[in-house]
Every structure is written in structure tokens, then in C-alpha cells.
């Protein structure tokens, strides 16, 4: 703050006045604030399953996950990313938004966004995802399905579409049935009108014949 040894030529009174001036300046100088972090928001870290952890069963979650341990069963992180670390060993069917494999995995992979096998990764199973990548050095044995309809079916997103199609088919069938019924009714009405007209004509002709016969008999 103030070093009297560096100001040996000043009298004690001048030194006190200088100190008072510095204190006065500090009163009106605004404090410095720390610069904001990049992006203005704190990045949430992924959960980690350590190398010493073993899990058997159904693993579910709603946050990004890194597996460095051993997991057997089923893994469902449908809206988040899953990373199988270099030490991770997984024997399970995996459902996630994005899947990154750096360790070993035995089972089917379902990625709604992408599946990536790193150079240290090993996968034995089928992959269903619209985007699949395999780095040089990574190993894979199985089949790959990149059709979007297959992805939607795996994540249960095809029910609404088939329901809409069924509803549209039902509406079309109902419309066809209504049109057919209206056509049949119209045809039946026309047939009845023609039959009534014919009967009326036959009756008129018969009456005219009877009247003519009666007139002839009277003349005789």
C-alpha cells in the first residue's frame, strides 16, 4: 500500500497527506469484477460409473453418462448421450440419443442421433441409428440399420404415425361406404319410380281397354 522506505525524502506530514489522498481515491474507485465465464452458463458434467463399480440389471437415467466400470443388462438413456470409456465393459442392449464406444460392448446399440465407435472401441452386436461412424482401429461385428423408420420403431415413435394412417384409412373407408349407400339408395328410388310409372301406365291402358269394350257392347 505505502512503503515509507521508498519515500525517504518526504516529511512525515507529506507522507500522511499522500496516504490520505490514496485512501480517498480508493473510496470513489469502483471495484473490479471478475470476467463472466465463457458462454455465460455453467456446463453440467456427465455422471460417471467408476472402474470398480459393477451393475447388473436395468440402468436408466436422464443425464449424460460415462461408463468406466462393468454393466450387464439394459441401458436406457433415451434423451442423453452415453460414453463407454476405455475401461468400460458393457454386456447390454443400449438405447441413447448418442453412443460413443471407447471400450468393449456386447449387445445391440440403438442411437436416435448417432453411434460412434472410437479407435479403441469394440462392438459385437447390431446397430440401429441414422448416423454411424467407425474410426480406424475400432472393431465391429454385426449389422447396421440406418433407416429412419427403423430408428423410430426402436424408440416407439411409429405408433402415432400408424394411428394417423389407420384413422385416414378409416375415414376413407367410411366415405366410400357412405357414397356407396347413397348411390344404392338413389338407384333404388329410381327403380321404384320407374316401376310405379309402369304400373300406372298399365292400369291406364287397362281402363281404356275396358271402356272401349263397354262402348262397343252398347252399340251392339
Give a short synopsis of this structure.
The protein has 220 residues and is an alpha/beta fold.
Characterize the structure shown:
- The chain has a domain of 107 residues.
- The chain is built from 3 helices and 12 strands, in the order αββββββββββββαα.
- With 220 residues, it is of the alpha/beta class.
- Strands 1, 2, 3, 4, 5, 6, 7, 8, 9, 10, 11 and 12 form a 12-stranded parallel sheet that branches.
- 39% of the residues lie in helices and 30% in strands.
Based on the model shown, name its key terms.
220 residues, alpha/beta, 3 helices, 12 strands
N-to-C order of helices and strands: HEEEEEEEEEEEEHH
Structural class: alpha/beta
Shape: globular
Q: Which residues sit in consecutive blocks of at least 5 with pLDDT less than 50?
A: 1-8, 26-42, 160-168, 171-177, 203-220
Cα-based radius of gyration, to the nearest Å: 45 Å
The total count of strands amounts to 12
In DSSP terms, counting alpha (H) and pi (I) runs of 4 or more, how many helices? Answer: 3
Cα-to-Cα separation, first versus last residue: 158 Å
Mean pLDDT: 73
**Main β sheet profile:** 12 strands, parallel
Strand content: 25-35%
What is the share of helical residues?
25-40%
Task: Compile the SSE list and pairings.
Blueprint: H1 12-28, E1 47-49, E2 54-60, E3 65-67, E4 70-84, E5 89-101, E6 104-106, E7 109-117, E8 122-124, E9 127-128, E10 132-134, E11 139-141, E12 144-145, H2 148-154, H3 159-219
Parallel strand pairs: 1-3, 2-4, 3-4, 4-5, 5-6, 5-7, 6-8, 7-9, 7-10, 8-11, 9-12
Amino acid at each position: 500500500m505505502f512503503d515509507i522506505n521508498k519515500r525517504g525524502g518526504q516529511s512525515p506530514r507529506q507522507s500522511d497527506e499522500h496516504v490520505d489522498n490514496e485512501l480517498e481515491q480508493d473510496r470513489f474507485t469502483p471495484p473490479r469484477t471478475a470476467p463472466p465465464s465463457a458462454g455465460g452458463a455453467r456446463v453440467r458434467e456427465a455422471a460417471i460409473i467408476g472402474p470398480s463399480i459393477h451393475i447388473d440389471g436395468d440402468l436408466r437415467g436422464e443425464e449424460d453418462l460415462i461408463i468406466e466400470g462393468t454393466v450387464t443388462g439394459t441401458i436406457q438413456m433415451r434423451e442423453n448421450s452415453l460414453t463407454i470409456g476405455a475401461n468400460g465393459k458393457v454386456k447390454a442392449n443400449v438405447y441413447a440419443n448418442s453412443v460413443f464406444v471407447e471400450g468393449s460392448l456386447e449387445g445391440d446399440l440403438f442411437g436416435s442421433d448417432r453411434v460412434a465407435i472410437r479407435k479403441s472401441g469394440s462392438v459385437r452386436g447390431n446397430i440401429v441409428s441414422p448416423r454411424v461412424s467407425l474410426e480406424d482401429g475400432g472393431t465391429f461385428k454385426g449389422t447396421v440399420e440406418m433407416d429412419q423408420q427403423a430408428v423410430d420403431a426402436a424408440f416407439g415413435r411409429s405408433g402415432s404415425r400408424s394411428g394417423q394412417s389407420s384413422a385416414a384409412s378409416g375415414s376413407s373407408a367410411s366415405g366410400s361406404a357412405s357414397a356407396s349407400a347413397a348411390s344404392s339408395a338413389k338407384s333404388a328410388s329410381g327403380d321404384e319410380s320407374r316401376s310405379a310409372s309402369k304400373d300406372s301406365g298399365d292400369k291406364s291402358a287397362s281402363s281404356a281397354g275396358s271402356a272401349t269394350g263397354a262402348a262397343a257392347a252398347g252399340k251392339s
